[in-house]
Every structure is written in structure tokens, then in C-alpha cells.
User: Fold this.
Amino acid sequence: MKKDQTPPDRRTVLRIAAGIGALATAGLLVTEGTGGRAAAPGAAVRGAGGAPGRPAAGAAGAAHHRARATAYRLQPMTTIPRRLRRIRPPVREHPFLSLPSTGRTMVLTFDDGPDSRYTPEVLDLLARYDVPAMFFVCGEMAAVNGDLVRRMADDGHVVGNHTWSHPLMPSLAPSRIRDEMGRTSEVVEELVGQAPLWYRAPFGAWNRHSFAIGAELGMEPLAWTVDTLDWTEPGAGTIASRVLDGAAPGVVVLSHDAGGDRSQSVAALRNYLPKLLEAGYTITVPQR
Ligand SMILES: [Zn+2]
Assistant:
């Protein structure tokens, strides 16, 4: 059903990766690498050379603020609230595929949820090992699983935007893309008090409208480095092997906590997460 696909061909990926490297060097994407947790609100961001003196956004801590109703999604850019203009990133031409490899850090991402059948156990496992992750939620799933979205934020995870209904964005008019992304940002903000700072295109299908609208909504685009292809249900052992074989500094792992039977994805996480930690990896989330 819902699944994400490996982005284009290898040459394109390498070309994109080179661009990402330049962005990372400029300090536009940085990690907080100590202790495996997200930085405290207001903490300095290491290597934030692209925006001198800018404090961290503090993704985790904002979770406790209750939402104010906002209606920015359908408004022209000039009327975006000041706080969103302040964090509005540049319009990218490619998504980020990895984190700068400043150490043995990796990012785990879970797409398409929340799903009450699988997300709670993913959250339990992450809590057991005290590591943060990123959840790219679909608005239609978040709207009916609000308690799980709140738990994500309360547990210190990053809640990203994966559109409302998981469409193929390049097939949509810009107004529909804005609606898919804007509604999702709204529901997340209503639930956790902060709109997403990151988004991921369904199927890895990005286009220039989604980059422009994502930036307008204050979000950076994040793709992935290692695709577990867990949606093909290849077996928990195979999923875990793909993560462990692909493990390297800066790697972003794609898997799913919804969109079908994700019991293999959960079982795989139970297998590979302690092994990554034993291998010396710090599981982290990007800071903005
Ligand atoms: Zn997806």
C-alpha cells in the first residue's frame, strides 16, 4: 500500500550527495551527537556556520506548548506569522540524504504512521534504549492517532510531515500540494504545539513545487541513505541486515511504522537497534 521507493539512479544519488556535502559543510544540517538525545531547547547547535549565532530550534522541548490555531497554510507568503518567517529555510533543489559524518551517528526514520498496531512498540523500543528518532507522519493518520503523535513529541522524537494522504506529489497541482503539506503541518502543530521542521515526499518523489511549499511552511526536505525496503516484507532478519550492513557515519535509515503489516519492521528494530549501539553508533536526530 503506502511505500517509499529508492530515489533515482545511483549517479543521480551521487550527484545529490555531493550537493548535500556542500550544504553540510556550510552547516545547514547538523547533528547533536552527545548522549544520543536531542539537544535541549535553546542549546547551541554545533557547527551551525550557515546561520551564525542562531540558536537551536529545540524540537523536543516545544512539545509541551499547546497549539494556537493557525491558518497559515492557505495564506500568501507575506502573511506567514513572524515566527515561521524566522525559521523559513531556503528553497532546496534536492533533499538531504544524510547527516554530515562528524562521528558515528545515525538517524532512524519511520514513515506513514502513526499506526496503533505498530507505532507503540516502536516507541517502546526507542524508549528502552533511550534514543530519539524521526517519524514522518501522514496527516490523515495523525488526525486519528493524536495520542501517539503527542507521545512521539513527549518522548523527544522529531515529528516530520509526510503529507496528508501520501499522494504522488509531482502529479498534483501546486494548490493540492500546499493543501497536503499545510494540513499536515496544522494537525501536527495542533497536537504537539510546534509545526514540523522537516518533511519527506511520499515515494521519494520530490518536485520544485514541493520544495518551494515546504520552505514556505518552514520545513527542510529529508530523504534517506539506506532504504530497508521493509514494505516488501522481506523478513525481519533481512531488514535488520540491511540496516547493519548499511551502517556508517551520517546514514539516515528509512523504514515504516504503518502502511501495511509492519510487524517485521518492529521485529527488525528490536534486533538491529542494540547492535548499532553496541557497535558504537549514536542514534540522533538532526537539529535546526
Ligand atoms: Zn511513505
Q: What stands out?
A: The beta strands are 30-31, 105-111, 134-137, 158-161, 198-199, 220-221, 226-227, 252-256, 282-283, 286-287. Residues 186 and 195 are 7 Å apart (CA to CA). The chain is about 35% helix and 10% strand.
